[in-house]
Amino acid sequence: MKFQDLTAYKKGFDLAMEILAITKTFPKEERYSLTGQIRRSSRSVCANIAEAYRKRLYPKHFVSKLTDSDAENSETQTWLEFSLACEYINKNEFDKLTIESMEIGKLLNFMIRNSDKSGSSKIS
Length: 124
Description:
Blueprint: H1 7-23, H2 34-54, H3 59-85, H4 91-113
Helix pairs in contact: 1-2, 1-4, 2-3, 3-4
C-alpha cells in the first residue's frame, strides 16, 4: 500500500483541488493572503499524511504528523469561513467544502486514535 491509497489522503487531495479551482476566482488582491493561505493549508493536509505514512514505524512521529495534518485541515476550515464572510464563495460552496473537510478530520482522528490499526508500526 502507498500513502496515495489512504482514504484521508484521497479526500484531502480532492478537497485541495476543489479549493484550487474555486480560489482562481478570488480577487487578485487576495493572491498572497487568503488565496495563498487556503491553498497552502489544504495541500499541507496531504503532505502531512504522506510524511506520517513514511514515519509509521515510529508511532509517536506517525501520530505527530497526523495531528499536524488535522491542524492544517482546521486551518483550511478557518480560511473557508473568511472566504464566505468576504463573499468570495457562496453558502452552498462553503457548506460543501466544510462537510468534506470535516470528513477528512474524522478520518484523521480515527487514524490518530487507532494508530496501531492505521499503519503505525506496520510495513505493507
